[in-house]
Design brief:
This protein is an alpha+beta fold. It has 18 helices and 20 strands. It has a seven-stranded antiparallel beta sheet, sandwiched between helices. The protein has a six-stranded antiparallel beta sheet with strand order 14-13-12-17-16-15, sandwiched between helices. The N and C termini lie far apart (73 Å).
Length: 530
Amino acid sequence: MIDPVVETVWRRLSPRMLVVHPFQEVVRAAPALLGLLVAGSSSGGKGHLWSVAGVGLMVVLGMLRWFTTTYRITPEHVQVRRGLLTRKVLTVPRDRVRTVDVTSHVLHRVLGLARVEVGTGTSERRHEGRLKLDALTAAEAARLRVELLHRSPAASTTASTTAVTVTPPAGSTPAAETELARMRPEWVRFGPFTMSGLVTVGVVAGFVSRLVSEGNVDLGRVGPVRETWRWFSAMSLPLEIATVVLVLVVFVSVASTLGYVLAFGNFRLTRHAEGTLHVTRGLLTTRATTIEERRLRGVEVGEPLLLRAVRGARLAAVTTGLRAAQGAQRGGSMLLPPAPRERAVSVARLVLPRVSSGTPEAAASPVTAGLTAHGPAALRRRFTRAYGVHALVLAALLAAWEWAGLPSWTWLTAAALLPLTALLAADRYRSLGHALTSGYLVTRWGSIVRRRVVLECDGVIGWNIERSFFQRRARLATLTATTAAGKQGYQVRDVDLAEALRLAAASTPGLLDPFIVEARTMSTLSANSM
C-alpha cells in the first residue's frame, strides 16, 4: 500500500509539460501573431519584433501554468489547485467519479504524456463537473484511471480509513478482458457520409477570416485568388452554383474521410472483469474512456440520413456521467463509430445488461424488437406540420417576389420541393414507434437523424406527459421518461394518451398509480368536450 501521509502531499504535473504548455499557448495565439507579422511587414514596420515578443509572452504564460498547478489524491477526494493571482481549488469526491478520460495528442505521445479528465456526471454541459490534469506521464495516467474506476467493493467501503489500493504496474492489462468490437478497414467507406467535414470547412473559413482581419490583408490583390475569382465570375449562374456545390461536396467528403480515420483509427471496445467497458480510439490523438457497466442504463442507435442510405449506424451509451450533449462521436458516450448497422446492433446486444447473445432473451432483444406504430392521427400530424411550414416559407417568398423584387426562381424552387416535403413527412412517421420488452423501454423517432433509444426501465425515475393544443385536438400526447442518464429525458412522441398511460404504468409498476385515475378522468372530459 501507498503511505497515506505521502499520498496527501500536493504534487505537480510532469515536468515535460514545460514543452507542451508553451507550444499550446503559441498555437492558440497563432492567428493574432501572424496578423502582427503581416501587418508590420506590409507597413514597413517592425512587425517581426512584435511577433517575437508575442511568442515570448505565450511561452511565459505556458510555463506559469505548470508552476501554478498542483494536484493530490486522498482516500476521499481528487483535488486540483491552480492559479497565480486568483488561487482556485477544485475538489471531486472519489465516490462521485463517473468517468476517467485519458487523451494523448501528438506532442503528448512524443513526450510520453497523457491528459486526464475526471468526470462526476454533474454540470457536464458546462464542463463544471470535470477535473483536468494536463498532463501526467502515460504510466501515471493509466494507474490513475485504474485506481479511480477499477476499485473493489472492499476498497470502496474502507476508503475513509485506509490508504488507496495498490494499482497494477504501468503498461499492465486487467486480468480478464473481452474484445467486443474493433475498427475494420472497410468501415472507412462510411467516412464521407458522416458530413463531419462541414466542421472543417467552418474552422478553415474562420481561421482564414481571422488571419485576413488581423493582418489587414486584401485578398483581391493576391494573384491566385484574383485569377480564380475572375474565372468563376465569367460563368453563368447555374454553372456557378454547380461548381460551388461540386467543390464543397468533394472537399467535405475528403475532409470527412480524413477526420473519420484520424478520430476512429485503432478503435477498440473491450469489457473488463472489474465491470467496466473500455473504449480506445484515435490515430494521432488517442483517447481512452472507461464506462462502469453498473451505471449503464441503455444504448442509442443513431442513423443520420446519409449514413442510413448506405446501411450504416453509430452506437452510443446511455449512462450517467457522460457528455451526451456533445454528441455520440465526440463525447465519451460513443461505443461504436459509424459502421455497418448490423454490427452496431450486435454490439448493442452485447453491452446491454441481461440481454447478451447466447441467452434466450437475445432472440427478443429490445435492439431488434418490433415497434408499435403510432396510428393515423400521428401520420396526419406529420403531414400537417411539414406542409404548414412549407406553405409559410412559400408564401413569404411569393410576397418578397411580388413586393421586394426577389428573383422568381426562389419561390419556384420552393414549390418544386413540395414532393420532397411529403417524403420527409412520410419518413418521419415511419420512424415513429415504441415498445416495452425484456425490462426495457424502446422509443424511436427522427428522419434527418433517426434515433432508437433502448432505456432500462429500472433507470426511469419519473414521467412527463405533455399535450399541446393541437395534440389535444388529435387526442395525442408526448410521453417523456425522465432518467439520470444520458440526456436525462427520452420521448415517446405523438402517442395516444391511453397508450402513454399504459406504457408508463407498465414500465414502472406502482409509480403512477395515484395519478392514473385523475389522468384518465381528464382524458375522458377532454374527449367529451370535442
